[in-house]
Amino acid sequence: LASFYLVAFNVVSAAGWAYVLFLTVSALANNGVPLTRLSSYIPSTFPWSSNAKSTNALSKYLRSLLFPYIPSTYSQSWAAVAPVQSLAVLEVLHVLVGLVRSPLPTTLMQVSSRLILVWAIVARFPLVHSNPFYTTMVLAWSLTEVPRYAYYALGLLGVVPPSWLTWLRYSTFYVLYPVGAGSEALVALSTIPEWQNGQYLKWALEDWVKAGMVFIWIPGLYVMYTHMIRMRRKVLSGGKGQKLGQKPKSRAKVA
């Protein structure tokens, strides 16, 4: 029963992120597909949303560099991103109850940082909705998660993943992790008021907390990056772990 549940979870998650990727790429190709029915259930503002409209000069400058080339895809993707990413909270529960053997610290770090971005930043600050770094963030997330969930689903089904899928699972992080973490930090940064000329003295406690979170993203990326490098060596470099082309080790706990 546990294996059946984990297969279903990974299949649904892979399909969800594939849909997010489709919506985002379609929007970038000026052929966005509106989620009219789903959007009615996923509002764009919430009771805890902020009406803050000011940001800092650095964020405005960085946004101006990217916006001509990568527009925001919030209106096309948000209704899918919110529920699909929220589903990942179950991954922490899986580790806590022993369904999978993933390390709790890295799982908790990745899931919590994304949930903070979705519900405490994007859902709360409408000024983020036009930010092109929202698009690069969602692209990095979806391009990372589709191979990851597909890889685990095949392993739980007892199917040897194709070598290209194994390579994607353990190689794309070299680019996607920095892009994703950098975009997350810049999205959060865009909600912080100006700090130049002593204006940080007017910051509220929340602004200081968000600034601290932006700096935490740097060591957080290092932890996740080095963890994936170790995993890649085991899988692709003939280490003691699983090798390329082999059946992936099941993440389900052995009774």
UniProtKB/TrEMBL annotation:
InterPro entries, per the entry: Tyr_Pase-like_PTPLA
GO-annotated molecular function: very-long-chain (3R)-3-hydroxyacyl-CoA dehydratase activity
EC nos: 4.2.1.134
One Pfam family recorded for the sequence: PTPLA
Bilayer topology: Multi-pass membrane protein
Gene Ontology CC entries for this record: endoplasmic reticulum membrane
Predominant cellular place of this UniProt entry's protein: endoplasmic reticulum
Alphabetic keyword roster: Endoplasmic reticulum, Fatty acid biosynthesis, Fatty acid metabolism, Lipid biosynthesis, Lipid metabolism, Lyase, Membrane, Transmembrane, Transmembrane helix
Biological process, per Gene Ontology: fatty acid elongation; sphingolipid biosynthetic process; very long-chain fatty acid biosynthetic process
First-tier enzyme category under EC: lyase
Keyword presence, Transmembrane: yes
Catalytic activity field: a very-long-chain (3R)-3-hydroxyacyl-CoA = a very-long-chain (2E)-enoyl-CoA + H2O
Record field: transmembrane: 7-29, 78-99, 111-129, 149-167, 174-193, 208-225
Family indicated by similarity: Belongs to the very long-chain fatty acids dehydratase HACD family.
Name of the protein: Very-long-chain (3R)-3-hydroxyacyl-CoA dehydratase
